[in-house]
Amino acid sequence: MANFTLSITGFDALAGYFKKAPDAIRKVQRQVLYEHALNMFAESQVQVPFRTGNLQRSGVVEPPASSGDAVVYIGYGGSATQYAFKVHEMVGHDFATVYNDFDTRKKAKYLEDPVLEGIPALKADLFRRVKAVLDAP
């Protein structure tokens, strides 16, 4: 019978890396979601109908909390929530004529469209940056 000894070095470092990885991934998730939410919001500001400016000024992006789930809030309304919702759903409405604002980018779905259009870039960036965390030494 043959005897042999197997020695694995660096296991403590590897275990430490895996212990830290979830925290690093959560941090990256928060960063990516917030960065992309800001981009989506910026595009929504271009699209939100402008009559008095109240609706546009009511827009908000709230960063994620430093713990718990990675959640970012993007919204419009505040005290004008019902108005924001009504305008958002006015598909086919001629905002240029009614609001005397001839910027053809102003439209209904001013928040939904930028969010939906931004999801592919968010996913790609999140994948790339999480992969970078996992590939890091």
- How many strands appear in the DSSP assignment? 2
Would you tell me the structural class of the helices and strands?
mainly alpha
- Strand percentage lies at under 5%
* Principal-axis shape: elongated
Number of domains: 1
Distance between the termini: 39 Å
- What is the overall pLDDT average? 80
What share of the residues lie within helices?
55-70%
Count up the helices: 5
- What does the largest sheet look like? 2 strands, antiparallel
Order of helices and strands: HHEEHHH
Major β-sheet strand ordering: 1-2
C-alpha Rg, in Å?
Answer: 23 Å
What does the oligomeric state look like here? single chain
Give an overview in words.
The two termini are 39 Å apart. The protein has one domain (20-135). It is elongated, with a radius of gyration of 23 Å. Strands 1-2 form a two-stranded antiparallel ribbon. The protein contains five helices and two strands, in the order ααββααα. The chain has helices at 11-47, 54-57, 81-88, 95-99, 112-135, and strands at 60-62, 73-75. Helices cover 57% and strands 4% of the residues. The model is unreliable at 1-7 (pLDDT under 50). It is mainly α.
